[in-house]
Structures are given as C-alpha cells and as structure tokens.
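User: Hey, my collaborator sent me this sequence without any context and asked if I could get a structure. I don't really work with proteins. Can you help?
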Amino acid sequence: MAFRAYVMNGFNGSKFSSKGVRGGRQKGAKAKSTSLGFTGRVDVTPTPGVFFGASIYSGDSGQGEIDVDGIEYGIKTTIWDLHGQAQVRGVDIRALFARANLSDAAKLNEALGLSGSKGVAEQMQGSYISFGYDVLSQVTGNAGVALTPYIRYEVVDTQAVMPVGFTRSLSTDIRFITAGIELKPIPNIVLKLDHAWASNDANDAVNQFNINLGYAF
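Assistant: No problem. I've predicted the 3D structure and written it out in structure-token form, which is a compact way to encode the shape of the chain:
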C-alpha cells in the first residue's frame, strides 16, 4: 500500500464555468493562496502490474474574490476519484470514476453574473474505461519497445447537478469513443495517435484527431 498527501494553493473559483473547474487551476508565481487545498491518494498493489485506489482533493476556491451583498463565500470544492489499472502479459486495462462537488454554487453564479444553463454546477462527474494490448509484449528481443492499440469509452458531465433555479445545457454531457495506437520506443517516451468520436444531446459535439508526445524523467 502507498499513501501520499499534499497541501497546496486552492482553485480560483472566479474562473469556474459551465465547462467545469479547469479554468480555476492556478499557474506558478501567479497563484493566489488565500484559500488552500489538501489532496491525498492511496493505492493498493495486490500483484505486480495491478493496482487500484482512491484520491481526494478538498479546499476552498473563493480566494477572497467571491462576494455577494458584502458576504464572502469560500466555495468549498471537493473532488474524489476511484481508479484502477492492470497491465499483465501485454494486456492493459484502466478505469476511473471522478466526481466534484461545490458548495454555495448558486452564490458563486450570482457573484459571476451567470444564469440559466450558463451557470456553474454544484456537482460534476466523469469516468472512463480503456482496453489495450501491447502487440510486441510476447516478442523476444524487442529491446523494451511497446506498440499498443487501444480503445476507450469516456463520459464527462460538467453540469451533473445544477443549483436550484438553473438548468443543464444539453452540450455539457459528452460521450467519447476513442480508438488509437501508442508507441513507446523506450519506457519513458510515448507517442500517441488517436481519433475520438464525440456525442451529446445537443448534437454539437466535435470529433477529434489527436497526436500526443509525452516523456517522463
């Protein structure tokens, strides 16, 4: 079992939107730390190549900027997830479910001047499950090169539950089916190419073609 915990600056809730909390992430020296956050993660590895666990983040996102009628609101933000991964004999299975809850979301929307389906939700959530297979895993003498076709199903809903008086947009509950291939010439470098077919109830989701390069050091 492995456990990690950190204290950091919280989100900036004034940047939250109907698309979620992503805009509230702060950047380096520009980050405000009036509101702090705590995050922790625990993982269990029952056998090599297999692990599962959970993580949580919790902290205020007001940063002293969310004020309605002279009353300051902290906008408590809590995000938790359940996750798991199995990599055995070339098979790669991954899954995750995450949910975010915001307190005083109605007051946040009032402070930001948002109404109707443009409002910030009090609950957001998403999940995915992915299957892949390294076609070189059983090849001898491949010098650690991995070539993994994969498919992933993903659901993201940034307006799962709205405050009273607000409505959900048909565009914010999006489903993705992604098919792609991943090349690892060495374990610390990865090149991915994939295509994602997107859909939502508003019929305005946009399909995506992605090329990604990643490295770890």
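In plain terms: The longest helix spans residues 105-112. You can pass these tokens on to your collaborator as they are.
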